[in-house]
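Re: beginner question about structure tokens

> Can someone show what the tokenized structure looks like for a real chain? I only ever see the sequence side.

Sure, here's an example I had lying around. Input first:
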Amino acid sequence: MSQQAIALLNLPVQAVGAIQEYRCVGFNGAQATAAGQKVYGIARRGAASGQWTDLTILGTSPAESGAAIAVGQPLTCDASGRVIVCTALSVAVGGLTVAAGATAVTSTAANGGILAGNAAVTGADLPQHLIGYALQASAGAGEFIEVLLR
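And the corresponding structure tokens:
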């Protein structure tokens, strides 16, 4: 298990429900329960409901993996608060689907030239939130790896 973390910012949080060590914690103080949800930080130690614990918010931290992960892959959380690889995202614009990274920034599509009629592009949260990158590989669920939190 990785123990070479360099935490640049740790903050306390009162647990809302049980939190397991090295799992993702949401902004509500509860261990992550939805795949891809927004994450406040990774728990440095476990806590029972109502107890205080520290979260690593910025820097590197050990985290429990929920699947196989390669070094450098972008990470999000699963429904159990473990880190998993972000999947490819696509953005739907009317009847057109543009895969992430498939359109050059200088194209007419990127500049809104393909929108016709009343089509509009509006901002919103992505379906999954990037929490950081894997600094170590995992062969599968239940392993502890070092992650770089953003």
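Each token stands for a local structural state, so reading them left to right follows the chain. The beta strands are 7-14, 24-25, 41-43, 52-64, 74-77, 83-85, 90-93, 96-99, 132-134, 144-149.
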